[in-house]
Design a protein that fits this description.
2 copies of one chain form a homodimer. The first copy, chain A, is of the alpha/beta class. Chain A has 4 domains: 166 residues, Molybdenum Cofactor Biosythetic Enzyme, Chain A (3-Layer(aba) Sandwich); 59 residues, Molybdopterin biosynthesis moea protein, domain 2, CATH 3.90.105.10; 88 residues, Molybdopterin biosynthesis moeA protein, domain 3; 70 residues, MoeA, C-terminal, domain IV (Beta-clip, Beta Barrel). The first copy, chain A, contains 7 helices and 29 strands. Chain A has a 7-stranded mixed beta sheet with strand order 1-19-21-22-18-14-17, sandwiched between helices. In chain A, strands 8-5-7-6-10-9 form a 6-stranded mixed beta sheet, with no helix packed on it. In chain A, strands 23-26-25-27-29 form a 5-stranded mixed beta barrel. In chain A, strand 9 and strand 10 form a beta hairpin. In chain A, helix 1 packs across helix 6 and helix 3 packs parallel to helix 6. Chain A starts with a strand and ends with a strand. Chains A and B meet through helix 2, strand 16, helix 3 and helix 7 of A and helix 2, strand 16, helix 3 and helix 7 of B.
């Protein structure tokens, strides 16, 4: 059975939907950067909390400035230190600092630079040469936001300015969506960990590193990461441990799903109802899905480029959306080189963005070219039935 | 002394340059996502490490397929399990799995789907109907990358595909730039922590939350975060602790630098040579810088919007560049509403992006409007001498 990329993507979206259904948790503001609000947040308070001065200067009654210049006795001072000042006596001024409580009966603040002060035997007076209207240089209580107003909407990815307004409203925690917990199980008896010394036929595992980093980059948490040899019992045990010990929402596997003789994922999961299919795409033709003890499993082919592109095409968009991240950019670009492709397979070639909306191919089509993939920054999406494209043709590209 | 935004930005860039000079550290691949390579990395190995099969099929000598169809005795099997197979005997074929070592003397692989096999009393034979040229379906050693070739360039922000190629080359650690360590000291006797219960005149501190999150979002590490009352001894002690206990590269302060009576940062740092200046901008006019025990200090005004925008304008671009992040997008947009501004001050108003390259203003110009800032996604940059702009005018905008 051959399936198109879009059909398989839709199938995986449906399979993962329950696992990606937002659940919420409450986290301190200091841990909430980049998290996504689980619900709209309503302000518990007016912002500002109280009527305060916008400037260093003098709190006055605007009516007292009707005739200019005017000299008013300075009846006291309100600093930005917390205080509950007495009401302003008509015909006087009170020295006030930025952010300080504006006394009752005062309705305007005259900035210090518009005043001169002098001291006589009667005390200190301030002389004002310019009139003011009520409200001048006064920040009204609730003028930024009223208690009960929406502080932040639901499904907002929290940036510093959003956390700042939560703090300003006195909130020290915020309800955010839980991050999706991904368990990664790579397979292959030929694979060894980076840092080890290979014998002939051994290959350094890059799939565990790639899937873990790609899941994190898509806003998920790596709940566990395990490598197993081509041994069905070991694979099933690793998957059970991932679910029991780490509460993974989702399992990703790599390797063991093609038509060869030692296909550990297929052998372990087909008896449990896994669907192994061939997608009309290159690289990444063999793909599989399963449900293991109630948890969805997405199985990628083991060739490193196939694993990475499969994640990017089928899983990353779902994780990014759940994490409130914008979709990766897909945009048409102009090919600088001709492309050969295979009819009946949608090819994802590796490309590099050039100025002027152009794209050049990097490396070859083969699924072992990990350095080629690392050197690219775009996928070039060659449609299913296209066999060749000329230089100058327009192709769809996916940003990596 | 009045300074322009660009002059102050250049001054801070020079002040911070030593603190932002890249130093490197070696980190495991699992911790390296989003970090920046400290130097170009050369591959210690050929990729692939050995000549291997691109397909499940039969390793053959292409010369043995000169006359078709041809039946070859199957002389054995090479699985993907690590193995060092004997050389291929001329006139025979060897069953081979994807990724397995191609035996010496074999120069092509025939995919299994192009073959039929049969078993006779002499053993198993494979019949091949289509010719092959040397190299077909064989991944040559080093065909992706040669030992000594550049695996990754210097100053690259590491994505999953870059970590994957490091792993594939057997590297388990990578030299990256150290992250800049930022100490944050907020000041103000009127400020209380979110979650506390304010009395009249007290304000929830949003600057600590905002600066910590913004520093992280710009790729830095928050080495420490402290709040002090308007007390010069407490401020100096907090700064000393930040340097001694957390090895901060850089100190940020908020509050206490304007012309009022309780200006703790100015009072503490001016005697040590701090430069307090007025920038021709709104919000954020008062700004200061200092060097404290050899470490640069950037001092922002305490109004929440001023603090946040000052960081965004003067410090974030430097931290982002050090972290290998692209600069925040600055792009011209069309105003949907008229703007009033003050000649002699470059205004940074809050705006929201609309479709079609337009921008609407959000909230007012005042520096206490934290909810307004949270509701915006752009700064609207109104030039120094502009007093008004009509709807339809083009303005520069900065993405938040």
């Amino acid at each position: 059975m051959t399936t198109t990329v879009d059909e398989h993507a839709a199938y995986i979206a449906a399979l993962l939907a329950p696992a990606l259904t937002p659940r919420s948790e409450s986290v301190p503001l200091a841990d909430a950067l980049g998290r996504v609000t689980a619900r709209a947040i309503v302000s518990p308070v007016d912002l500002p909390l109280f009527r305060n001065s916008q400037m260093d200067g003098f709190a006055v009654r605007a009516a007292d400035l009707a005739t200019l210049p005017v000299s008013l006795p300075i009846a006291g001072e309100v600093s930005a230190r917390p205080t509950d000042p007495p009401p302003l006596v008509a015909g006087t001024a009170v020295r006030i600092m930025t952010g300080a409580v504006v006394p009752d009966e005062a309705d305007a603040v005259v900035p210090v630079e518009d005043t001169t002060t002098s001291t006589t035997s009667d005390g200190e007076t301030v002389t004002i040469n310019r009139g003011r209207v009520a409200g001048d240089c006064v920040r009204a209580k609730g003028s930024d936001l009223r208690a009960g107003d929406e502080l932040l909407p639901a499904e907002l990815r929290l940036a510093s300015r959003h956390l700042a307004v939560l703090a300003a409203a006195g909130l020290d925690v915020v309800d955010v969506r839980q991050r999706v917990r991904v368990a990664i199980v790579t397979t292959g008896s030929e694979l060894i960990e980076p840092g080890a010394t290979p014998t002939l036929g051994q290959v350094f595992d890059s799939n565990g590193t790639a899937l873990a980093a790609a899941a994190r980059a898509a806003g998920a948490v790596v709940a566990s990461r395990t490598h197993v040899a081509d041994d069905t019992a070991a694979l099933l045990a690793a998957m059970r441990v991932a679910l029991a010990e780490t509460s993974a929402d989702l399992i990703l596997t790599s390797g063991g799903i093609s038509m060869g003789d030692y296909e550990v994922v297929r052998e372990a999961l087909e008896p449990l109802g896994a669907i192994v299919t061939t997608i009309a795409m290159q690289p990444g033709g063999p793909q599989a899905t399963a449900v293991f003890e109630g948890t969805p499993v997405v199985c990628f082919p083991g060739n490193p480029v196939s694993t990475q592109l499969s994640f990017e095409i089928f899983v990353a968009p779902l994780l990014r959306a759940t994490a409130g991240m914008p979709p990766a950019v897909r945009a048409p670009r102009t090919l600088t080189t001709p492309v050969r492709s295979v009819a009946g397979k949608r090819q994802f070639l590796r490309g590099r963005a050039l100025a002027g909306g152009r794209v050049e191919l990097v490396s070859g089509a083969s699924s072992h070219l990990v350095a080629g993939l690392a050197a690219s920054d775009l996928l070039v999406d060659v449609p299913l039935e296209t066999e060749s494209l000329e230089a100058g043709a327009t192709v769809q590209t996916w940003e990596l």
